[in-house]
Amino acid sequence: MTVQELPGAASYRPTPPPAWKPRTDPAPLLPDPEPYRVLGTDAVDGFAPELLRRLYAELVRGRRYNAQATALTKQGRLAVYPSSTGQEACEVAAALALEDRDWLFPSYRDTLAAVARGLDPVQALTLLRGDWHTGYDPREHRVAPLSTPLATQLPHAVGLAHAARLKGDDVVALAMVGDGGTSEGDFHEALNFAAVWQAPVVFLVQNNGFAISVPLAKQTAAPSLAHKAVGYGMPGRLVDGNDAPAVHQVLSEAVARARRGGGPTLVEAVTYRIDAHTNADDATRYRGDGEVEAWRNHDPIRLLEHELTERGLLDEDGVRRAGEDAETMAARLRERMNADAPLDPMDLFAHVYAEQTAQLREQAAQLRAELDAEGDA
C-alpha cells in the first residue's frame, strides 16, 4: 500500500512539522556568482606594495621550483613529481595567509606551499624521492606530512584545530585539497565535523579542472564546489585562483574569522593545472592544446607582473632580481638533489609508531639479520 492509498490520503501533505526551521540562514553562506578578483580592479589599492611584491617574488620562485623538480624526475632524482605550475597563486597565498603558530595541511601537489611557508626545498621533495616517510619534522615547521591519499589530511586538520581550541591555543589549520578530493568521503566527514564543532579550520579547494583525467563536470553537478559549504552550515567563497592578491585576501579573511571563533570556511579557487597530473601522466589524452593555451593567457605571474608594472610598483630591475633569486634557489636544489643521500634501511621502522609494535620489532630484527648476512658475504 502506498501513501496515496492510505485513508485520508487526500489531506496528506509532505511538509515538515510546524516546529521545523532552518538551523542557519543560508543566504550569507552562499558564494558570489562569479570568482572574486582583485587584479584589474580598484581593490588593489588596499594592498600594501610590500605584500604585492612579495607575492610576485614567491610566484616567480615557485614557477622555477616546479620546473626544476620536474626536470629532476627526468634525471632519475625524483620518483614522481605532481607539478603545481599554473597554481602558484594558490600555493603561495595559502602559505602567506597563516601565522607562524598556525598549521598547514597539504596534499601531494602542495610542496610549493610548504616551501613558501619556509620548509627546506629538499626536505619537501624527500617523500617524492622515496627516501623517507615525510622528510621533515611536522611539529617544527607546523606543516603536516604531504598527503598522497586523497583528502585524508582534511579530518586530521579538523582534529588538530578542534583540539587547539579546546586547549585554548590560538591556532588555525588550513587544509588544501584538489577538486578530485571533494568526491571523497573524508571531505564530507571533515566539513561536517568542522561545522558542527565550529573548528578554526579553513578548507582550500584548488579546482584545477581535472582529477587526473576526470573533468569537474563528471565529478559534481553542484553550481560550484564553494556551494557545497552551505549544506554543512559554513560560508563558501569563490575566488579566481590565478589572482594572487585575491586568493590571499579571501584566505586571510577566512583565517581571521576562524581565529576569532567564527568557525570554518570553504574556499574554492578556480585555477588550472598547466602540466600533466604527474610525470607519469599523458595529459594530451584528455585535453587539447587550445584549452591549455587559453589558461596560459591567464597565468598568475603574468597577471600580477602586469598589474605591478602598470602601477609603478615593479620595474625591470625588480623582475630581474626575482628571476635571479629563483635561479639561485634552483641551482642549490639541483646541487643538493644530485648528491646521493646516505640511506639506512632500518629507518623504515623509525617513525611508524612512537613505540614500536611487536610485529615491527620482529620485522626490524629480520631485516637487520639479512643486512648483516649480506655484509658478511
Could you write a compact summary of the structure shown?
This protein is an alpha/beta fold. The protein has helices at 49-74, 88-96, 111-116, 121-129, 138-141, 153-167, 185-197, 228-232, 244-259, 289-296, 300-310, 316-337, 358-376; strands at 103-105, 173-178, 201-207, 210-211, 214-215, 236-240, 265-270.
Structural summary, described in words:
The chain has 377 residues and is α/β, with parallel strands linked by helices. The chain has 2 domains: 25-276 and 287-343, 3-Layer(aba) Sandwich (Rossmann fold), CATH 3.40.50.970; 344-377. It contains 13 helices and 7 strands. The strands form 2 sheets. It has a 5-stranded parallel beta sheet with strand order 1-2-3-7-6, with helices on both faces. α1 crosses α2 (88-96) and α1 (49-74) packs parallel to α12. The radius of gyration is 24 Å and the shape is globular. The termini are far apart.
- Gyration radius over CA: 24 Å
Q: What share of the residues does DSSP label as strand, in percent?
A: 5-15%
Could you say what the CATH topology of the largest domain is called? Rossmann fold
Unreliable sequence segments: none
Characterize the overall form. Answer: globular
Structural class by sheet pairing and helices: alpha/beta
CATH top level of the largest domain is: Alpha Beta
Number of helices: 13
* SSE order: HHEHHHHEHEEEHEHEHHHH
Mean pLDDT, nearest integer? 93
Region (Disordered): 1-32
GO biological process, one term: branched-chain amino acid catabolic process
GO molecular function: magnesium ion binding; oxidoreductase activity, acting on the aldehyde or oxo group of donors, disulfide as acceptor
Cofactor: thiamine diphosphate
